[in-house]
Amino acid sequence: MTNPEGAQLTKQDFEALARFRFGIRRYLRFSEETVREDGLTPQQYQLLLALKGFPGREWASVRELAERLQLRHHSVVELVNRAQAQDLVRREAHPDDGRAVRVLLTPRGEEVLARLSALHRDELRRMHTVLTLPVWNSAPPEG
C-alpha cells in the first residue's frame, strides 16, 4: 500500500497510526463521559471551549462558532439556545452590526468550563505518550 506521496507505509507506520487513533478515541471517550457527569453534552463543552478559546476576544458570533465547531448555522443556534437555558452563555447585540449577535460565557459557564478544562488538561498530561504525533518509519519520497 502506498500513500499519496508514493512512499510505502511500514508495519510500524500502521502501528503508529493505530496507536494515535486509539489515543484520540480514548481521549474523546474520557471527554464525553466527563462532561456528561457534569450535566453537559459534549457539544455544549465544545461550545464553551470555542468561546473561551476564540482568538483575541471573549465572544464569538454564531457564524464564527459554526465554523469553529464545524456545524451548520442552525445547529449552533439550537446549541446556543440550550446552553443559554442552562445559564452557560448569553447573547448580546453586536455594537457595530445590528444583524449580528455576540455569544458570551456567563459566570456559571466560566466556572463550569474552568473545572472541566482542568480535568481535560490533566487527562491529556496522562495520555501524553499515546497522543504524541506518530514518527514515520518510511522515508519521504525524493523530489
TrEMBL record:
InterPro entries: HTH_MarR-typ, MarR/SlyA-like, WH-like_DNA-bd_sf, WH_DNA-bd_sf
One BP term from GO: response to stress
One Pfam family, short name: MarR_2
GO molecular function list: DNA-binding transcription factor activity
Positions of the HTH marR-type domain: 10-143
PROSITE patterns: HTH_MARR_2 (PS50995)
Name this protein carries in UniProt: MarR family transcriptional regulator
